[in-house]
Design brief:
5 helices, globular, about 200 residues, five-stranded mixed β-sheet, four-stranded antiparallel β-sheet, alpha+beta
């Protein structure tokens, strides 16, 4: 038994055995992945979306709000926020609902991105440059959508294309009835934050 154990142990530790070759391939794969990620400028940035929900006189219901990002093919990349309190009214967020109908069939999705409705005021939503699956997005053109609807009330959809590359930028979106104002800010992270990603 000791001899068999020694032979197995020696085969594992000897270079050039199948185990050693497997480790070599894994190291190369990890190295390639880290080299690829280090060339992606998006890793050094985050996208901040600041929006202001309008204040109305008298008593009014809080709006349902969806904030998400789509790629150049109009495919949803990431839902950043979904503020609502009743599934019955979700279809009123027309564009968001149409894009995410299949995902809505899985409660795990809505639990991960949703929260309660918000009162009037300013809010900032941060995007860590990852898609709904947790993968870092590639540089390129993306569109940020902010959709708001009030139960039995007004509706607003604003969007703006932004190019994610090596250049920081701040873009103002035109406000309206539900969303008084909004800004998209693509900012470079400090090296400490970048290294922790």
């Amino acid at each position: 038994m000791k001899i068999l154990y020694s032979i197995i142990l020696a085969a594992i530790l000897l270079p050039g055995t199948s185990y050693g070759m497997l480790n070599t391939r894994d190291t190369r794969t990890e190295l390639s992945r880290s080299q690829i990620e280090s060339t992606n400028p998006v890793l050094d940035f985050e996208l901040n979306i600041e929006l202001e929900l309008s204040r109305f006189e008298g008593r009014s219901l809080r709006p349902f709000v969806a904030v998400w990002v789509e790629n150049e093919k109009s495919e949803s990349v990431r839902t950043l926020a979904l503020w609502y309190n009743n599934n019955r009214w979700l279809p009123d967020l027309k564009r968001w609902y149409a894009k995410h109908f299949e995902k809505l069939q899985k409660p795990v999705f809505t639990d991960a991105v949703s929260g309660a409705t918000r009162s009037a005021g300013k809010y900032t939503i941060k995007w860590d440059m990852k898609d709904d699956s947790g993968n870092t997005v590639e540089p390129g053109k993306y569109t940020v959508y902010i959709e708001a609807v009030r139960e039995r009330g007004t509706y607003q959809l604003i969007n703006r294309e932004i190019e994610l590359n090596e250049d920081p930028k701040r873009i103002e979106l035109e406000g309206g009835i539900e969303i008084a104002s909004a800004f998209i800010e693509y900012v470079k992270l400090s090296p400490e934050i970048t290294s922790s990603r």
